[in-house]
Amino acid sequence: MQSTAPANWPDRTAQNPQPPDDPPLQAEALSSVSLLQGESSIAIDHLGTRYVLRATRAGKLILTK
User: Which domain holds residue 51?
Assistant: First the structure.
């Protein structure tokens, strides 16, 4: 079976044939202001699927497929 883990994951197929359930957490957080850059929404392509990150008037973030 070929691994479907992202390229930045360590190769652990010898010890654990299943990829981890969750990707590793990033050490540094990204600011929503820097991501949105003044826009109310942005499109994010992830593994061939497009998602939309939207900021609401109430200041919340919504991620939709």
Answer: 38-64
Phi then psi dihedrals of residue 52, to 5 deg = -120, 125
Asked if residues 53 and 63 have their Cβ atoms less than 8 Å apart, the reply is yes
**Is residue 23, in this structure, part of any structural domain at all?**
no
Give me the amino acid identity at 50: R
- Split into its structural domains, the chain has a count of 1
- Give dist(CA 30, CA 41) in Å, integer: 15
Helices (H), the chain: 32-36
Q: Tens digit of pLDDT for each residue in 36-61? A: 999 999 999 999 999 999 999 999 99
**Exposure string over 26-42, b if 16+ CB within 10 A, otherwise e:** eeeeeeeeeeeeeeeee
